[in-house]
Specification:
The protein is built from 1 helix and 27 strands. By secondary structure, the chain is an all-beta fold. It folds into 2 domains: 218 residues, Galactose-binding domain-like (Jelly Rolls, Sandwich); 225 residues, no CATH class. Strands 3, 5, 7, 9, 11, 14, 15 and 16 form an 8-stranded antiparallel sheet that branches. The protein is elongated. The two termini are 34 Å apart.
Length: 481
């Protein structure tokens, strides 16, 4: 069974070994959870914890607007990096748009007629997000970023800043071949006070967007020989511009617009048909709008009665901080399967480099003893398709945790564990076939984390892996209790 939830996907360095099975104990409790992992729902170094009982965030959407514009340069009455600013009222239906709690979004197809290195920047008050994805041609992805950067918003194609701020910028560098077409999707949000939104471009590598004196230009059709259009046929020379505003704090449960993350979830809801009126989103908002799916053999979902997806919630302990207690008791027990499908976000796949498993809070007999970490490139629901064993543990007489509860153990070739393949896969799962019990409540595990390197699509001629990281340059960082 499969259900769609949000995730942040990252990558790290690949280390392979062929030595005997080993493992590394990282500690116990939430503080031992590892950052920079494929299934981390929070921020690197400060992982969030999903609380299924948290009160949803409530927004009252007052207006939704759409128009076109030749460039993105909004800062009514006071220029930021560029002059000639447009008023928000120039967006069709945008009379009265501005003030507090609103967002402006710009979308366009970009055709690069000259190969090379480019830098793209977004300036705003408050936060912002830039998404630059491949349509056709050859594209390196975002190779470096600078200015205001929030790690949790950084992927191979996105970067931005999550919080309220005065006028400031975020920049990203990338490479393309001649004729490459990319799709730009960027937005700003405004909590209160001043506000602005600019999108700029520069030839060469510069992660700190500036104005004309710094070699930066507003992005528009013809800038640096780039074609700009609302459509992939390039039948016009405009951006699509959208905007919404909310009545922040208008009711006892209504929320202001406070982060880029929640703004993205609102935009995703609008893309899905949400109109004006009340919108509820998960709390925290990082659980919405991503391109990955969790799956399980039974009890799919977060929370519930100790459901399966709790293994990805960045919490350890009892109750809904774990998955318990197994379906299909007997001798042998039915397979207990849980995992994640990344094919929507990374069609080129991911090379698994490490994973962590955390024991539950009680009853050592329920710990997995015989289990397999597997990868697939053709599954549709996590249970079908062809699965390749990456790692296996085959001793039915004991578990790796013994009697230690809420203990995090890392497995990786770098720690001396034998991984049987370094193939890239689009989905990973843990399949357990034996625990220390075979009747009643016979199975439990608290947490699973996957680490890996993404494979670029299209792949460069050298076939190199894309080594991309959420924060920093590709190295895993471990936190211990």
């Amino acid at each position: 069974m499969k259900a769609k939830f949000t995730m942040t996907i990252v990558a790290a360095l690949s280390l392979w070994a062929t030595s005997a099975q080993a493992m590394t104990v990282l500690g116990t409790g939430n503080g031992a959870l590892v950052g920079n992992d494929l299934t981390d729902l929070g921020n690197d170094g400060n992982e969030g914890a999903y609380n299924p009982n948290a009160t949803p965030l409530v927004y009252n959407i007052q207006n939704i607007h759409m128009d076109v514009a030749s460039s993105i340069n909004y800062h009514p009455g006071n220029s930021f990096q560029f002059g000639g600013d447009s008023a928000y009222s120039t967006i069709s239906g945008g009379a009265g748009l501005g003030g507090d709690d609103f967002s402006v979004r710009a979308q366009a197809f970009l055709r690069f007629n000259v190969a090379g290195t480019y830098s793209i920047g977004a300036g705003s008050d408050d936060g912002r997000l830039v998404d630059l994805s491949l349509v056709s041609g050859t594209y390196s992805g975002i190779t470096s970023t600078g200015g205001q950067i929030t790690g949790a918003l950084t992927t191979p194609t996105t970067f931005g800043f999550d919080n309220p701020t005065g006028n400031n910028t975020s920049g990203g560098v990338f490479n393309v071949t001649a004729g490459t077409v990319l799709q730009l999707d960027t937005f700003m949000f405004e909590r209160g006070g001043g506000d602005s939104f600019e999108v700029s471009i520069k030839s060469g590598s510069d992660t700190t967007p500036g104005g004309p004196g710094d070699g930066w230009s507003l992005l528009s059709d013809g800038t640096l020989s780039i074609d700009v259009s609302t459509n992939a046929a390039f039948s016009d020379t405009n951006f699509t511009v959208k905007a919404f505003n909310i009545v922040g704090g208008g009711g006892s449960n209504d929320n202001d617009l406070n982060t880029t993350s929640e703004t993205r979830v609102i935009w995703n809801a609008i893309d899905g048909g949400q109109g004006t009126g009340t919108l509820n989103i998960p709390n925290p908002p990082s659980l919405g709008g991503f391109d990955a799916e969790f799956f399980s053999s039974n009890e799919p979902g977060f929370g519930g009665g100790e459901f399966a997806f709790n293994v990805f919630d960045n919490q350890t302990g009892g109750g809904n901080n774990k998955w318990c207690c197994g379906a299909g008791a007997g001798n042998p027990i039915a397979e207990q399967i849980v995992g994640a499908d990344f094919s929507g976000q990374y069609p080129g796949g991911v090379v698994l480099e490490a994973f962590t498993l955390t024991s539950s809070n009680d009853t050592p007999a329920r710990d997995p003893r015989v289990f397999f970490i597997e990868g697939s490139n053709d599954t549709t629901d996590g249970l079908d398709g062809t699965w390749t064993v990456i790692y296996s543990r085959l001793d039915p007489n004991s578990s790796d945790w013994g009697n230690t509860r809420n203990q995090v153990i890392r497995y990786s070739p770098g720690d001396g564990d034998l991984f049987q393949t370094n193939q890239a896969f689009t989905a990973f799962r843990m399949r357990t076939t034996a625990t220390g019990a075979n009747s009643g409540a016979f199975f439990a595990i608290s947490e699973i984390e996957f680490f890996g390197s993404t494979v670029n699509i299209p792949e460069p001629a050298t076939g190199l892996l894309g080594l991309l990281a959420l924060a920093g340059l590709g190295r895993r960082r471990h936190r211990t209790a």
